[in-house]
Design goal:
The structure is a single chain. The chain has one domain: Alpha-Beta Complex (Sufe protein. Chain: A). The chain is about 40% helix and about 20% strand. It has five helices and three strands, in the order αβββαααα. A three-stranded antiparallel sheet has the order 1-2-3. The longest helix is centred in the C-terminal third of the chain and has 21 residues, at about 100-120. The protein is globular and about 45 Å long.
């Protein structure tokens, strides 16, 4: 069963679309379920001025993408890097255990977009926590 917040973010997703000439773009996917998330960032003076997403996947994938973008918009890069899949789940008032991987993909997409920003600007990236892509085949985050 999905929470009202999950249903709201699925039915009325925030920040859908692309950012032309984005500061950073991150794309992650889960081959096991077919979900693909792409996050676009517009960063100015270390602040995420705008964020958009395109997600191909289930309702939980769309909802977690929408919530993650809401959570990082207007934040500094360092604040955005602190987002966790658990924080996304909590902000959505929970997800079914079989859909936890969607929140992991949302966290990874945000981090991938920030890493792309660092790469494009020649900035040395800090070591990031999280599995950084293992969810294309593992069950380590399913609770």
């Amino acid at each position: 069963m999905y929470s009202e917040k999950v249903m709201d973010h699925f039915s009325n997703p925030r920040n859908v679309g692309e950012i032309e000439n984005a500061s950073g773009v991150g794309e992650v996917g889960n081959a096991k379920c077919g979900d693909i998330m792409k996050i676009y960032l517009d960063i100015e003076n270390d602040i995420i001025k705008d964020v958009k997403f395109k997600t191909f996947g289930c309702g939980a994938a769309i909802a977690t993408s929408s919530m993650a973008t809401e959570m990082i918009k207007g934040k500094s890069i360092s604040e955005a890097l602190e987002i966790t899949n658990k924080a996304v789940v909590e902000a959505l008032d929970g997800l079914p255990p079989a859909k936890i991987h969607c929140s992991v993909l949302a966290e990874e997409a945000v981090k991938a977009a920030i890493l792309d920003y660092y790469t494009q600007n020649g900035i040395e990236a800090p070591e990031l926590s999280g599995c950084n892509g293992c969810c294309s085949g593992c069950d380590c985050h399913h609770e």
